[in-house]
Structure formats: structure tokens, C-alpha cells
Amino acid sequence: MLVGMPAPVLDTLRGGLVVSCQANPGSPLRDPFIIGQLALAAVMGGARGVRIQGFADVEAVRAVTDVPIIGLTKTDRDDTDVYITPTAAEGVRLAELGAQIVALDATRRPRPEPLAEMIGTIHAAGAQVMADISTLDEALAAMDAGADIVGTTLSGYTPYSRPGPDPDWTLLDELRVAGVPFVAEGRLNTPADAARALTAGAAFVVVGSAITRPDVVTGWFARAVQDATQSS
Ligand SMILES: CC(=O)N[C@H](C=O)[C@@H](O)[C@H](O)[C@H](O)COP(=O)(O)O
Questions:
Q1: How far is 48 from 130, CA to CA, in rounded Å?
Q2: Catalytic activity annotated for this protein (predicted)?
């Protein structure tokens, strides 16, 4: 059984729902004030924590709520495909702004900084580390490197992991059998998916698009309506 460092903040999330409040580039919701309101609405609905992207949004959300924040950056770089919190400096800044947990890319793709060093630096800044992975091997390596928990966030987003559109239920099973503490995240698009993920062994679940990306959810409905129209 692999066990991360003592995890008081992570423990408060155990068995609960975390809502990812992020807006894609170009979305009319991409504004720190709006992300703060989305976070408040999520907490009102029962979210125990929130997952927030970018310094301005973490700062805005911390100003309006005390719930645990999983912070991350999304940084496009020319030198690597790693884009979720690619450097320790970004992780430290997120911690300074109020993220108790920092999420970072722990895939095996070439990375700008060694994973273990990054995790050590973020721990020293007082935050816990959620390692976003896409395969079991990456999860095991991330725990060896000192991560507190892994997240299935990047399954389907690396060229070698299982593609969507469904959640990667196989990966959840593999993590549970291997005894890796994990968060289920990615394409949990219904309450039944979220409940199933907990039954499958997840410490807690993170849901994003289905709750906080109305543009994406509208697309699901619009396509279904269009398909129905064409087949009638
Ligand atoms: C792959 C990637 O960059 N995922 C991001 C990570 O923070 C977010 O865009 C997702 O919304 C989040 O993981 C939740 O997933 P879903 O929106 O499927 O519930």
C-alpha cells in the first residue's frame, strides 16, 4: 500500500465532491469575478472544495471562500507538452495565493523540471501535491517522487493513454488494486459517474465541465437535438 504524507486538507475532501471552476480561453466566463461566483455557487450546492486555474482566479476565489483550493496553472510552452503547473515557481505562487493543494502534470512526457524536486519545493511552500497522471505507471512514479495523491485528470490527454469519451474506469480499477491513493477526475459528466468513481475507490471526485462550463454542456444538448432532428 502506497501512502502519501499526512494529509489534513486532503482528508477534509475525502468522500466528497470538488468542483473545478475553469473557463476556456475565449469563454465569456473567463473573468476572475465570475470564477469566484461559480465557486460560491458550487459551495452552495455542496462542493467541499474547488479546483481553480491561474493566479488571478485563485486569488479571487480565496477572497470569497475558505474552502480548500486545488490550484494549478495552464501554461503553453514551446519546449514541452506539459502544461498543468509545469514549474515549481508557479506551484509556490499558487500556494502563496491560498491554494492548499497544488495540482501538477506528472505524466512521463519530457518536462522542464524534475518531478521530485518540484514536489519538494511545493511542499516546502506549505502546500500538498496532487499529481495529475494518465496511466498507472505514472501514478506509481509520482507517489515515489513524493506526491500526496494522484488524479486521473490526464487520462485521454496523452497520446498513449485511453481516449474518452467515457471516464477511464479501467485506470480507476488499476489504481485501487495497486493501493495508490487517487482522485477521480475527467469526464465525470453525471452524478451517477461521480458516485461510481467513489465506489471504485477514489478518495474524492473532481467534476468540471458538467457543472461549470455551460458552453460545453450546451454543445452536448445542441448536438443531441441536431442528431434527433436529422434522424426524424
Ligand atoms: C485535461 C485538462 O486540462 N483538465 C483540466 C484540469 O484542470 C480541466 O480543464 C478539466 O475541466 C478538469 O480536469 C475536470 O475535468 P472535466 O471537465 O472533464 O470534468
A1: 16
A2: an N-acyl-D-glucosamine 6-phosphate = an N-acyl-D-mannosamine 6-phosphate
Q: Using CA of residue 109, residue 112, residue 116, residue 121, what is the dihedral sign?
A: negative
Q: Identify the residue whose C-alpha is closest to ligand 1 atom 4.
A: 153
Nearest CA to ligand 1 atom 19: 208
| pLDDT at 27 > cutoff 60 | yes
Reported ipTM exceeds the 0.95 cut: yes
Q: How far is the CA of 126 from the centre of ligand 1 (A)?
A: 24
Global pTM reads 0.95
Cα–Cα distances (Å) from 133 to 104, 145, 151, 161, 178, in that order, read: 9, 13, 6, 10, 15
Bridge partners, 182 (sequence order): 150
Ligand 1 pocket residue status of 71, Cβ below 6 Å:
no
The domains found in the chain, sorted by start residue, are: 13-227 (3.20.20.70)
